[in-house]
Design goal:
This protein has 798 residues and is of the alpha/beta class. α9 packs antiparallel against α12 and α9 runs parallel beside α15. The longest helix is centred in the first third of the chain and has 19 residues. The two termini are 47 Å apart. 60% of the residues are buried.
Length: 798
Amino acid sequence: MAAYDPYHNGVPVPGEYVEATDEQGRQIKKTNCHFCGYLCGFHAVVDAGKVVDLQPDPTRYPYDEKILAGCRRWRMNLDVLDAPDRVNFPLRRVGERGSNQWQRVTWDEALDEIAQRLGALKEQHGPGTLASMIGGPHTSFWPLHRFMNLFGSPNNMGIGQICWNPRIWMDMLTFGWTVEHDIRPGETECVFIWGTNPADSDNSAFWQALRSLDGWEIPLVVVDPRYTQAASLANVWLPVRPGMDCTLALGLLHVIVEEDLVDHDFVDTWCHGFDELVANVEPYDPETVGQLCGLDPEDIRKAARLWGKAKSAALVSGRGVDQSGQNVAPTHRAICSLRAITGNVDKPGACVLAEESEFVPEVQLEMTYALTPENRALCLNTPYTPLQSYEGYEYANALTAKLGRHMPTRYLCSAHPDLVLHAMETGEPYPVRALIVEATNPLLTYGDTHRVFNALMGLDLIVVLEYYMTPTASLADFVLPSAGAIERTTFQAHGGVANMVYGGAQAVNPYYDRKDDYSVFRELGLRMGQEEHWPWDSFAAACEAALAVTGMEWDSFCSYGMYFQPPDYYKHLKPGEDGTPQGFATTTGKVELASESLDHLGGPRVPKQSELISLCSEELRKKGTHVRLATGARKQPYNASMYMNNAKFRKNTPAPCADMSQATADMCGVKDGDNVVLATDFGEARFKCRITKMRDGVVSADYGWWHPEWTPGAPYFGGMWDSNINCLTSVDRSKGEEMIGTWSYNAIDCVVWKTDEPLTFSLQDVVEKHGINVVADSLAFAESHQGISDPAPVRPLD
């Protein structure tokens, strides 16, 4: 089969997969990194079953030596294989929860007991008693979801509501499937980057392409309150007030309509609800929008004209939009409308509607059909988030199925954390008493850390699959050692919403007693009566079977590092069964500028800006300076709460920072390098002030910060109380977006004040202010350690 480079670089692709040996007789194996979603290709040098060296393999995805040359993580692959802080054997808790007292057990002992305890809880409370938590794309989640479906629980939590899901949902309802940017030299005439900084957001291949735009003479518009690396390249930088992105998008639409930059042929033939959209954007003139968003009206006009006059224009959005709370869906809908009314839909150089995968998609691998209607009815989201629910999924999937595409289920139906936490706390509407945590550290990465901590402390069973003893792992009943990069097969399929997958073979068997995630859930499933549903004895065999339907052999995939077939353009013009153009997989067969689907589900037909919420009481505001807060921005080389244990990284970035402009610092009475407290009614965290170029009146706080070098567990739990921005956030669904349930990380407020105290809180402070549950001897231990800046540093970074 032919292999393709999705970035159109024309890079030759190698032949069949072969293993080689070097002059010393050591094996040279193709394998993959897994420290970001790219899964960059390596050559691993293997001697006696151990990896002794790694070299980049530019003949495999992402086909560019510059990607790895600019990456500070990839050499970690050698270090972490045998790192002293890795979890290498199954551990069972033997003391109080969080006490860091463990007993090493065998896999059979661990899985036998987990299966027995899950079975007993299911018998007592029903299948919904089991919940799960996942994170970013650091593993394949369909084995967990298959296990959950077969167990009968719909209660998988994730970060979908604030990452990926909002865009996917709005693309699906507007266009009938997801859209991706299609930047092409010679065809693309304008690029918008909205709420993402590819230089820092693990999107390095795209960042390299973006840096080439100037040479291609393609104008660039960047929407971000921070002056990012991407913003430094922009022709127009729009530092929008956080949370006002929808208003800005409606203002851009107003200019395009007012100046008649509309593609009338496309709109008249293929768009539904144009007149409603025009009436909706009429009040959003540049002067009004400029005042609301804090922008120069002429910059709004200039950006709109660059977009509207381009023959092909491409737009890339990111988590800055996805994490904007109650305005996330209308913002994405307005962005969809920007594409549509200018004809930038399924068009070269603009955007392209993806295709469902030709390999077996995740919707089948996760066995969605195994979750019975009775068990689907246990979904806690109904009726609170009518789109992100099984009822919403079935409605939307019936539309996409008209053109033969099926949406991934478990991601798009993931349970809202607020509702699952409520069931853990109160037993209503039924008790959630058990939790599986995979590839995430929710005490750092989920909103409202104090609430998450208390809920987990009260559970009957927590199982964590991990590399390290994270704060979350320290609360577990069982910590199961996960095989990492190079030790396991990789297969990144993007949820099955595109006809693309990349990855490859493991170079070595897992070190020590680690297992890959598939093996854990398969072996647990076999113990719980799921034997017939786990036919493959390994993850590699499962991936080989999923790929086989394409005609591509596994060895070829491991050699290429990718299966990719580029989608056709203008698919809406293809003849359908009746010989007429097939159109779009929506209720009207057209791009829905006014959404009949959202109207059916109780949502707004056209995008409208909602008022921003406040998390700060008047009493709190008296303590400092009231500003807007943006959280979650990635800063290389970190990603969420990961890689804090890398000594080189920590030497270069020793402290968590709160970024602000000079004007904001003056307003707050602080200087560069001062310690500051950021606070909402939900909690506090401490950071170093870092003065940088960005929008005035906004603070951007580092995300996911903790201290892996400190003793795990009580009393300090790796320092997770000190500079954890999620101590300030809330997942309260009543404050979130009404259809999906997105809570806000980037459109909230906080109060800032200077402190002369160290960045480390005392445990007594946390207990008194937030009422956290701690093991009995924690306070006594803490009292003996008061006043030190680095409590219990028994695991130095070296």
